[in-house]
Specification:
Mean pLDDT: 86
CATH topology: Heat Shock Protein 90
CATH architecture: 2-Layer Sandwich
InterPro entries: Anti-sigma-factor_SerPK, HATPase_C_sf, HATPase_dom
Structural class: alpha+beta
Largest sheet: 5 strands, antiparallel
Keywords: Kinase, Serine/threonine-protein kinase, Transferase
CATH class: Alpha Beta
GO molecular function: protein serine/threonine kinase activity
CATH superfamily: Histidine kinase-like ATPase, C-terminal domain
Order of helices and strands: EHHEEHEE
Organism: Spongiactinospora rosea
Number of strands: 5
Protein name: Histidine kinase/HSP90-like ATPase domain-containing protein
Number of domains: 1
Length: 139
């Protein structure tokens, strides 16, 4: 987590089981609402769902979700203790798996994987304003 860009931070311990993904989504939605960034809820909760699902399926516990903001940007991180690093692959038309990182890639402004000595974190960044929207207008 890039602490110097985070004015506020929220952390959630993800439990196993079918309720974990919904609980992580609700946690993210509440944090965004508290921070005045509710307009990011749909995108961020989708990204969180995909990353938590991947950690539950392929990682090892404990699994943590950390979100932070500087007021205009949200940075999220899902960490687990599994050794396998996720890789963005093209989805096979007949495969029902493998689309999670495609969605993360589509909805995050940036994302990546950081290996840890005993696991990894998958992080994402989502800006409240579209990246090109901050171009000054003539006049």
């Amino acid at each position: 987590m890039v602490a110097e860009t985070c004015a506020r931070e929220a952390r959630f311990e993800v439990s196993g089981g079918p309720e974990a993904i919904g609980a992580a989504r609700r946690f993210a939605g509440r944090a965004l609402a508290r921070w005045g960034l509710a307009e990011l809820t749909d995108d961020v909760t989708l990204i969180v769902s995909e990353l938590v699902t991947n950690s539950l399926a392929y990682g090892k516990g404990p699994i943590t979700l950390t979100l932070c903001t500087d007021g205009r940007t949200v940075r999220g991180e899902v960490g687990d203790h599994g050794p396998a690093l996720p890789t963005l692959l093209p989805a096979d038309l007949f495969n029902e798996h493998g689309r999670g990182l495609i969605l993360v890639n589509a909805y995050a402004d940036d994302w990546g994987v950081e290996p840890w000595p005993h696991g990894k974190s998958v992080w994402f960044v989502r800006h409240a304003e579209p990246v090109g929207a901050l171009v000054p207008q003539p006049g």
